[in-house]
Amino acid sequence: MYSALPPAPRLLLLEDDPAIARTIRYALEREGMAVTHCLLLADARRQWALGSYDALLLDIGLPDGNGLDWCRELRSAGSIAPVLVLSARGEEMDKVLGLELGADDYLSKPFSPRELLARTRALLRRSRQFQPQTQARLAPALQIDEQGQRALVHAQTLDLTRREYQLLQCLMRSTGRILSRDFLLEQVWGLDSESADRTVDTHIKTLRAKLREQLPGQELITTHRGLGYSLSLPE
């Protein structure tokens, strides 16, 4: 489903200093980006699991944890979302550590709003999230309409439950990559959920059946024994 204007890039900002956060939000939102701000790591985890974000702006030293630990967890689970680390630690070894743990870029505090904006734009361009059409929207048969919170097959709405839609959305954001059950469980059900791996398997089964019905002869979701699931886009 196409629109006249591309949707605003959605950014999740994790910053425990309200003053810095206000400056960042102002700089990015005046350029048309949508910013969700969290003060604590736990809140950011919940927002990330519930939302569909194009990039993560991440502070390191937080009252309830270390941002780099979360970055490492996201990468280990298969997330490819771009991550920009914002930190008062400007030493070379801190930057190297951040990049080695999966961050895409590292910006030392204090920084200018102009440099922050330039680096954020560069990350979004490299991930192809800042372009009018994302990889999912270019799919000729299967599409995600994020604003409408629905999936479409040949421009027709696919009848999915909320969890099935969120699973499909998560898989399409990382097309071709294997996503673990734990990662899918966290992204769709959240960290505080009491659901188990079996819940993911059950929903994948029903989602796969619905895709097969609308796209016969095409097996889009692949099970990787002991690893998780991956999705390939239909031709």
Automatic annotation (TrEMBL):
The keyword Manganese appears for this protein: no
Superkingdom field: Bacteria
InterPro entries assigned to the protein according to its UniProt record, in alphabetical order: CheY-like_superfamily, OmpR/PhoB-type_DNA-bd, Sig_transdc_resp-reg_C-effctor, Sig_transdc_resp-reg_receiver, WalR-like, WH-like_DNA-bd_sf
SUPFAM superfamilies for the chain: C-terminal effector domain of the bipartite response regulators, CheY-like
Phosphoprotein as UniProt keyword: yes
Protein name (record): Winged helix-turn-helix domain-containing protein
Domain OmpR/PhoB-type: 133-233
One Pfam family this sequence matches: Trans_reg_C
Keywords: DNA-binding, Phosphoprotein
Domain Response regulatory: 10-124
Provenance organism: Comamonas guangdongensis
Modified residues (4-aspartylphosphate): D59
